[in-house]
Design a protein that fits this description.
Molybdopterin biosynthesis moea protein, domain 2, five-stranded antiparallel sheet, elongated, binds fe (ii) ion
């Protein structure tokens, strides 16, 4: 049985000082380097005391688990609205089919079908309440052939969520979703043998593939507003200038391109690509935090990770040492290392670099 946070013997968890929140309660006296007491046991933390502990360089301390669990539940609270997963999935599947027809039309040299684009954008905007289903859907993308179609729908859904968290205006959100839906439409003009190739691309093939933002821009530019076509053109640009096709840097990129870049990376990393095995979302958080450092906008990335990580509070997980548990609290310093409740007690992964989450159920 998992330890119950409400049991008479109060469970404790060691938390990094940066993860402390007002309302948590010390489970042991907190001492400074010379052994003097800074806070007694059973002391409820407030912002002032937390700031003081951080200022004094206290690395971590024991708090009672009950308040940590409660704080975790609060983190997770916004994830429970929305329609049933089956209804959501059916709507996504219909959108993927619609998108597929539109994509194939462009592959055959046709122009952008504006009516279908409008329908797709409307459908995605309608799903703004289904955040939990959006994450599930994004993580379950399989099928090799369907990859581009599902990917574009999933990037639209993720962009919609992230745009909402960034407090974008409704009109800008609509443009963002339109750009997200069309961001890889230029792949319709990339030779099929390259687009669907199993295994890594050769240098020449990769060069062809990298033309897709420009190809897409030319397909849509006379049909959509400039902010949409510009976002499509720049979705592979990176903050440090290492992206393509223009090599733009942070200050040349609009917020829509920054959001698209993050949604695109998340979707690509979580999907079961032809040449890479499916990876756990916590590994994706780690990769996005570390590998994308300097390449993705740090503020937008933090908003994204903070919000999406909370979806995993309460999820069952498997740790790399084989122990099963439940995520109870997200550490804002590193979203890939939450506090996990296991049958052997509470584990704060932030302080345990040799242990991590290998699977989520
Ligand atoms: Fe792309
Ligand atoms: Fe993409």
């Amino acid at each position: 049985m998992l330890p119950d946070e409400g049991s008479r013997k109060r469970n404790k968890v060691r938390l990094a000082t940066e993860a402390l929140q007002p309302g948590m309660v010390t489970a042991e006296p907190v001492l400074n380097a010379s052994g003097a007491v800074i806070a007694w046991q059973d002391r409820e933390l407030d912002e002032m005391l937390i700031a003081r502990l951080q200022g004094m360089g206290i690395g971590n301390l024991m708090v009672y688990a009950r308040e940590v669990v409660a704080a975790g539940r609060e983190q997770a609270v916004e994830w429970h609205a929305g329609k049933s997963p089956e209804v959501f999935r059916r709507q996504c599947e219909a959108d993927v089919d619609r998108f597929k027809d539109m994509f194939l039309h462009i592959s055959n040299g046709g122009a952008l079908d504006l009516e279908t684009t409008d329908l797709l954008v409307e459908s995605v905007l309608d799903m703004s309440q289904d955040k939990g289903s959006i994450v599930d859907y994004t993580l379950q993308i399989r099928g090799v052939d369907a990859y581009t179609y599902e990917h574009c729908v999933s990037v639209s859904l993720i962009s919609l969520m992230l745009g909402g968290w960034m407090r974008m205006q409704e009109e800008d959100l609509e443009s963002l979703v339109r750009a997200a839906m069309l961001h890889d439409i230029g792949k319709g003009r990339v030779p099929l043998n390259i687009l669907n190739k199993e295994g890594p691309l050769t240098e020449r093939e990769y060069k062809e593939m990298k033309k897709h933002p420009e190809l897409g821009y030319h397909v849509i530019k006379s049909e959509v507003k400039p902010d949409v076509s510009f976002a499509v053109l720049t979705h592979h640009e990176r903050e440090d200038g290492s992206g393509y096709p223009l090599g733009f840097r942070a200050d040349q990129l609009r917020i829509s391109a920054k959001i698209l870049a993050i949604a695109d990376v998340f979707s690509a990393m979580t999907a079961n690509r032809v040449y890479r095995k499916h990876v756990s979302p916590f590994r994706v958080f780690e990769l996005m935090q570390n590998d994308s450092f300097g390449r993705l906008d740090p503020i937008v990335l933090d908003v994204f990770l903070k919000n999406i990580a909370h979806y995993y509070v309460d999820k069952s997980v498997l740790l790399t040492d084989g122990l099963k548990g439940k995520v109870i609290f997200m550490n804002a310093q590193d979203y890939s290392r939450p506090v996990v409740q296991t049958e052997r007690g509470f584990v704060d992964l932030l302080g345990m670099k040799n242990l991590s989450i290998s699977e989520v159920f």
